[in-house]
Amino acid sequence: MAGKAIVVGGGIGGLAAARALIGRGWDVEVLERAAAFDEVGAGLSLWPNGVRALDALGLGDQLRDRALAETAGGIRDSAGRWLSRTDLDEFNRRYGPVVMLHRADLLEIMRDAVPGEALRVDVEVKEIRDAGDHVEVVHTGGVERADLVIGADGIHSAVRHSVWPDAPEPKYAGYTAWRLIADPGERIGQGGESWGRGERVGFAPLPDGRVYLFGVATMPAGQRNDDELTEMKRRFNNWHAPIPALLAATSPDAVMRHDIYELPPLKTFVQGRVALLGDAAHAMTPNMGQGANQALEDAVTLAALLDSHTDVPAALLAYDKERRPRAQSIARRSHQIGVIAQWSWGPAAAARNLLVRLTPESATLRSFETALTWQPPA
Fold first, then answer.
1. Cβ contact 204:100 at 8 Å
2. Nearest 5°: phi and psi at 319?
3. What confidence tier does 10 reach under pLDDT thresholds 50, 70, 90?
4. Strand, helix or coil at 43?
5. Measured over all CA atoms, what is the biggest interatomic distance in the chain, rounded to whole angstroms?
6. Beta strands in 43-198 (DSSP E)
7. Is the pLDDT of residue 84 over 90?
8. pLDDT at 189
């Protein structure tokens, strides 16, 4: 089965869907609201399930050429004492490697994998109309018909708002996040995450020697500072090495700050000939590093199911049945991890750290199984 597909949103999930459908003979158009297919994010971890999805798209080798396999990781407290360390040899044996790269590098790989004539920028979608045997997409350039519309346009999805006007709105998770790329001038051999009381810091080396760093703090939504780097230093300069040195090696204009929002569970990801994927369907907190990975799973699965069904609505129902329980389960777990990791009451944080320290390594490894053992559909 093939036809005309319009993908709304030119991020990782949208480009993955376009790549997968074009490979199956679909005529695909990607509509991006921004002026360019650019990525303003910082670092990105691709877990084994996401790497397999890219392999299924024929892009795995390009990913490996531009990514760095994680060298070490785990969880520490703010003083640097290890609470949990990941046995990477055993982790890789069970699941495969986790790789790090800049988001812009992944987006470039995926953008180059889609024909230029399929990519349109400065197009804002206004409305999606169900016309039975086709879908009409109303946007700033006019009206187009398609056999399939994929909403891959993020947490504030215009497709979702049009097709599901009563769907729940994104909710603030209770904490804000700073993200940056630091250039310390020397290689950092390992990454990981460190937990404090209502605050966290994580960092990971990138292939070019720079380091991705993020900070998280519990606070009301909407607060901002004139100089976010100074605010990060105020909060995290007394944490363990190399966190102060990484902050010192950062310019103020390199710091991005975003309040963390998540999407409450939707009753369905599909309606007729319209499907949601990625953050438009299941925006989750970043505590499991699974947002981009789940979007890649969505795209690969959707394309495979369209290939194996006789009509689009039936394929989309199968997609919803397969993807929604899994993505929403991972989103719930990510939410729960965030709640625990952000505990700020001293006795609760101390009990949490003790529990993490006493958890056997085998149990920690098993906890990854549900998320990381996913395989692309045949």
1. yes
2. -60, -45
3. very high
4. strand
5. 62
6. 43-46, 68-69, 74-77, 82-85, 99-102, 119-120, 125-130, 135-139, 142-146, 148-151, 171-182, 192-195
7. yes
8. 80
Confidence of residue 2 (pLDDT cuts 50, 70, 90): confident
In the block, tokens 């800049």 appear at 102
- Burial class for 363, CB neighbours closer than 10 Å (0-12, 13-18, 19+): exposed
Show the tokens assigned to 243: 């966190």
* 28, 39, 240, 314 from 171: Cα distances, Å: 32, 24, 32, 31
Place of tokens 């055993």: 90
Question: Could you report the per-residue pLDDT of 254-286, keeping only the tens digit for each?
Answer: 999 999 999 999 999 999 999 999 999 999 999
- Give the Cβ contact number of residue 226 at 10 Å: 7
Compute CA distances 182 → 191, 239, 254, 256, whole Å: 13, 16, 8, 12
Distance, CA of 116 to CA of 154 (rounded, Å): 22
Domains of the chain listed by start with CATH number: 4-69+101-170+264-340 (3.50.50.60)
97: its two tokens: 């490697």
